[in-house]
Design brief:
Blueprint (H helix, E strand, L loop, with lengths): L4 E6 L2 H5 L5 H12 L3 E4 L28 H11 L4 E8 L5 H14 L4 E6 L4 H6 L7 H17 L3 E4 L4 E5 L13 E3 L5 H10 L2 E2 L6 H17 L8 E5 L12 H14 L4 E5 H4 L6 H9 L4
Helix pairs in contact: 2-3, 3-4, 4-6, 7-8
Length: about 300
């Protein structure tokens, strides 16, 4: 079995980078130099007051936490790095129009020389949608239409596409991605029957919600079976899973135990990419150099 990739999700930027958000670009370069395989950016266009609606527990950040726009941030990182893959984890795809999404991602893939991974989700915050003038309802259906439209635009020209929410005929949308087959799409969704079908049709991989190992293993088994039933190689399924930090008696992350015990257990559950949310693993900027060195050297 090949070595799992190591990914860092940029989070907690106010605490770790202060007001100098341009230093995120320097951080990406340091991660690239350290041997980290991927850096991922989360997405919120805005944060409203009703964060208690967050469906995965307590919302972990204050309302005034900065959320740099992912594709703009990754474009800046692309110019400062050489080999590290650049990802969204996740981009709230229904907040972007299909043509703009296809154009922005293809351009970014060209400028990074084929290093983009598109992680998508549907979002949970009503205010982001209403503030953007976009309906909150049926957002999954609109996301799938948009991703199918992106595929059509990336695969040939002139491209035509017709769906309930996106339609066009004989369009050239250049440049197109340099990665063969277009940009890999990863779904940050629960493995319901509907979502499994979407991953099988359009996806390179799955990003489990949460880090429960039994739930990850069950979702991986379900997806691999669906891949096989559709004639796709089950071994080709990518799984980007968060590694739960081991907490020591001092209530701090025990990185040695995390990497020695929790990371291998996450791989055993089916992960091909080990994701480390930065806010969970670094309390201060001084923690970053050692963390990058350890993650860049991780071998399982």
């Amino acid at each position: 079995m090949s070595r799992p990739s190591v990914s860092i999700t940029v989070s907690g930027v106010a605490r770790l980078f202060g007001r100098d958000l341009a230093s995120l670009v320097d951080f990406a370069k340091r991660a690239d130099d350290a041997g980290v395989d991927q850096i991922a950016i989360a997405d919120h266009l805005a944060i409203g007051t009703r964060t208690e609606r967050y469906p995965y527990g307590r919302f972990p950040f204050p309302n005034d936490e900065p959320w740099p726009e992912p594709l703009v941030t990754l474009a800046a990182m692309a110019g400062a790095t050489q080999r590290i893959r650049l990802a969204t984890a996740v981009l709230i795809a229904p907040l972007r129009s299909a043509l703009l999404l296809a154009k922005s991602l293809a351009t970014l893939d060209v400028l990074s020389r084929g290093r983009i991974d598109l992680g998508v989700g549907v979002g949970w915050q009503i205010e982001e949608f209403t503030g953007s003038g976009i309906p909150f309802g049926r957002r999954t259906a609109r996301m799938i239409d948009a991703l199918r439209a992106c595929r059509a635009l990336w695969q040939g020209a002139p491209a035509s596409f017709d769906s309930p929410t996106v339609s066009f005929a004989s369009l050239w949308c250049e440049p197109r991605p340099v990665q063969p087959g277009g940009i890999p799409i990863w779904f940050g969704v629960a493995p319901s029957e509907r979502h499994v079908a979407h991953v099988v049709e359009l996806g390179q991989g799955w990003m489990p919600i949460g880090s429960d190992l039994a739930a990850i293993a069950a979702g991986v088994a379900r997806l691999r079976a669906a891949f096989a039933a559709a004639g796709r190689d089950p071994a080709s399924l990518g799984v980007r899973a968060n590694v739960a930090p081991a907490i020591g008696d001092d209530r701090r992350v025990n990185l040695d135990r995390t990497l020695a015990e929790h990371a291998p257990a996450t791989v055993a559950a089916g992960a091909t990419v080990l994701a480390f949310p930065l806010a969970a693993y670094a309390r201060t900027p001084d923690d970053l150099p050692a963390l990058l060195a350890r993650l860049g050297a991780l071998r399982i």
